[in-house]
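Re: the 81-residue chain
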Amino acid sequence: MKGTVVGINPRKGFIAIRIDDGDITVAELLGDYNVDLRDRIRGDLEALGGEYFYNLTKQEELDVFVQGTGCSDHNARLLLA
């Protein structure tokens, strides 16, 4: 499944990814990655916990911990804050 980065909190190392079906996933980056708004991400974007995503834009694997799935815009902002 694929999505687009729609939010970033660099202080916490969190990103929000809008899945192509409209829901938002919030994940914590477990490394020093250069992720930007509008980057395209592929992976199991609806699984909670430890996952590996792939940044299609930067061609880089991302080690993440998924904090929330199926989030609304409001819930995603709360997790990013």
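The chain has one domain: 2-80.
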